[in-house]
From TrEMBL:
InterPro entries: Pribosyltran_N (IPR029099), PRTase-like (IPR029057), PRTase_dom (IPR000836), Rib-P_diPkinase (IPR005946)
Protein name: Phosphoribosyl pyrophosphate synthase-associated protein 2
Species assigned in the record: Astatotilapia calliptera (Eastern happy)
Organism phylogeny: Eukaryota, Metazoa, Chordata, Craniata, Vertebrata
Lineage: superkingdom: Eukaryota
One Gene Ontology term, aspect cellular component: ribose phosphate diphosphokinase complex
Gene responsible for this protein: PRPSAP2
Sorted UniProt keywords: Acetylation, Nucleotide biosynthesis, Phosphoprotein
One Gene Ontology biological process: 5-phosphoribose 1-diphosphate biosynthetic process
Family (UniProt): Belongs to the ribose-phosphate pyrophosphokinase family.
General function of this protein: Seems to play a negative regulatory role in 5-phosphoribose 1-diphosphate synthesis.
Length: 370
């Protein structure tokens, strides 16, 4: 049988004649291995035997305890709070598989680390490009990820990248778990996320609302390095007859909601929930405009710092995220947080890559803005 996401349920057919399949979980944290166990169970295989641990001097050590020669290796890595350690675990394990003569090494990173640092900021650097280069250099031959913060990150790799989407699972949750969702409106908490909100609204045949005028976003063009002129005027640096026009500074207007949310369910959609201040502020604005119930839906629930406490004390009724990142501790602190399992689509992607089947089935009806 099939579910509404279009992916067949039940045991997945594995072609074991193509050199064998090995699935490793690179994360040494127990709660982060849960997703790998779910994927292996769906594929009907056992997780590969590997030891990943920290030595007394905080160096990461990886010991693969079975043969991977001539096999298709899939390394599943979810991000923990110590993101730099999890990156090193991934790199060392991939390199270990490469030197052990694995046929192919596919990284499965549901949340790609440092994806927010994908643009030049003043005198900073594009860190996601650095991470991509390190993974390719370590020996990755393919990458499976989900809802990249910016789709252009795929261009940082010189290997194939499959950027899967969690939206079918979130849409299914809305249809099945929100009884009166026909009376809902999809909300973008800033103009930057309007395209994602429009995609959800069109699929659910609902209206859309956009909140405009909130506090300056950290990713605005104002902090881009191209808008940082020299502080001191140097004589002779520019020809006297040339006057470079300065860009007029941006000024945020008062907070306004474009669209009607009065007497409706408001569903705020985004790709990442990390610092929840902007979501809490958006929920308060929507309550003032007459929304009687507020949901927040996102793919990646980083929920850093005091996010669970802020959510619990806010006007938000429910936060729905997927299990791309483990957040069991945050759920214990805040019962408003709900989880949607996306192991099904990851296991299907692994099965198709291992069997040499087309991946286009997993991208049916996916638009440019999804």
């Amino acid at each position: 049988c099939t579910c509404e996401t279009g992916i067949e349920k039940g045991p997945l057919y594995m072609n074991h004649t193509k050199g064998g399949l090995v699935i490793f979980t690179a994360n040494s944290h127990p709660s982060s291995r849960e997703l790998g166990k779910r994927i292996a169970e769906r594929l009907g295989v056992e997780l590969g035997k590997v030891q990943v641990y920290q030595e007394a001097n905080r160096e990461t050590r990886v010991q693969i305890q079975e043969s991977v020669r001539g096999k298709d290796v899939f390394v599943i890595q979810t991000m923990s709070k110590d993101v730099n350690t999890t990156i090193m675990e991934m790199l060392i394990m991939v390199y270990a598989c490469r030197t052990s003569c694995a046929k192919s090494i596919t990284g499965v990173l549901p949340y790609f680390p440092y994806s927010k640092q994908c643009k030049m900021r003043k005198r900073g650097s594009i860190v996601s490009k650095l991470v991509a280069s390190m993974m390719c250099k370590a020996g990755l031959t393919h990458l499976i990820t989900m809802d990249l913060h910016q789709k252009e990150i795929q261009g940082f790799f010189n290997i194939p990248v499959d950027n899967l989407r969690a939206s079918p699972f979130l849409l299914q949750y809305i249809q099945e778990e929100i009884p009166d969702y026909r009376n809902a409106v999809i909300v973008a908490k800033s103009p930057a996320s309007a395209k994602r909100a429009q995609s959800f609204a069109e699929r659910l045949r609902l209206g859309i609302a956009v909140i405009h005028g909130e506090a300056q976003d950290a990713e605005s063009d104002q902090v881009d390095g191209r808008h940082s002129p020299p502080t001191v005027k140097t004589t002779g640096a520019i020809h006297p007859s040339m006057e470079i026009p300065l860009l007029i500074p941006k000024e945020k207007p008062p907070i306004t909601v474009v669209g009607d949310v009065g007497g409706r369910i408001a569903i705020i959609v985004d790709d990442i929930i990390d610092d929840v201040d902007s979501f809490v502020a958006a929920a308060e604005t929507l309550k003032e405009r007459g929304a009687y119930k507020i949901f927040v839906m996102a793919t990646h629930g980083l929920l850093s710092s005091d996010a669970p406490r802020f959510i619990e004390e806010s006007a938000i009724d429910e936060v729905v995220v997927t299990n791309t990142i483990p957040h069991e501790l945050q759920k214990l602190q805040c019962p408003k947080i709900k989880t949607v399992d996306i192991s099904m689509i990851l296991s299907e992607a692994i099965r198709r890559i291992h069997n040499g089947e087309s991946m286009s089935y997993l991208f049916r009806n996916i638009g440019v803005d999804d």
